[in-house]
Amino acid sequence: MDNQHACSEEEFLKELERVRSSGYALDREENEPGITCVAVPIRDHSRNVIAAISMSQPSAKVNDTVLNEEIQLLQRAAEQISTEMGYVQHGHLSV
Predict the structure, then answer these.
(1) Of 89, 88, 70, whose CA–CA distance to 24 is shortest?
(2) What's the half-sphere exposure (Cβ side, CA atoms, 13 Å) at 64?
(3) Residues 6+ apart with CB under 8 A from 93
(4) Model pTM?
């Protein structure tokens, strides 16, 4: 999806499924020209998404390496916050 084309319901649902399966959402200048944003979910004790944590920066500074590092950083932070909210990952026990 991009900010220059109308998005059909089918395209939106396809993108939503990609976000669910990858665990992060990516905004490449769709909301604001020149800005790239990545976001990951925060979950509660019932595994529901209750919030998100994101990072935005100038698109000119973003490449695949930087983006992958930021996704990992955000996922670790979201996992820590989610754990504090009572979330337990499948196969992990909270102590």
Answers:
(1) 70
(2) 0
(3) none
(4) 0.79
